[in-house]
Amino acid sequence: MPRGKKVRDQSVEVNAPEGAAAPIPLTPAQRKWLARGLDQPGGKLPLFDAEGRRVSRQTVQACLDRGLCEPWFANPLKPDWLVCKLTDLGRASLADHR
Length: 98
Prior knowledge:
The radius of gyration is 14 Å and the shape is globular. The chain has helices spanning about 30-35, 55-65, 90-95; strands spanning about 5-10, 10-15, 70-75, 80-85. The protein has one domain (about 25-95): Arc Repressor Mutant, subunit A (Orthogonal Bundle). The chain is about 25% helix and about 20% strand. By secondary structure, it is α+β, with helices and mostly antiparallel strands. The strands form two sheets. Strands 1-2 form a two-stranded antiparallel sheet. A two-stranded antiparallel ribbon has the order 3-4. The longest helix is centred in the middle third of the chain and has 9 residues, at about 55-65. Strand 1 and strand 2 form a beta hairpin.
């Protein structure tokens, strides 16, 4: 069996073939945040929710840890704000929940 990237799903690790995007279950907060990147150039994810509040750091970190998003670029004005974009795995996980 070819080795692929490891994908974390809660406390279970799944070996997905390299290049494959096996959908991962999403929490409602993760789904809501990630879905906002579908309409954005390059899959850019917002720093703030629809009500103008900063997206929970816990939500962002969980998505990063699970490979649903990745850092896009450093924000020189606010280095503690992580600008992220959707990954193929994030897109596949969103499509799996429609």
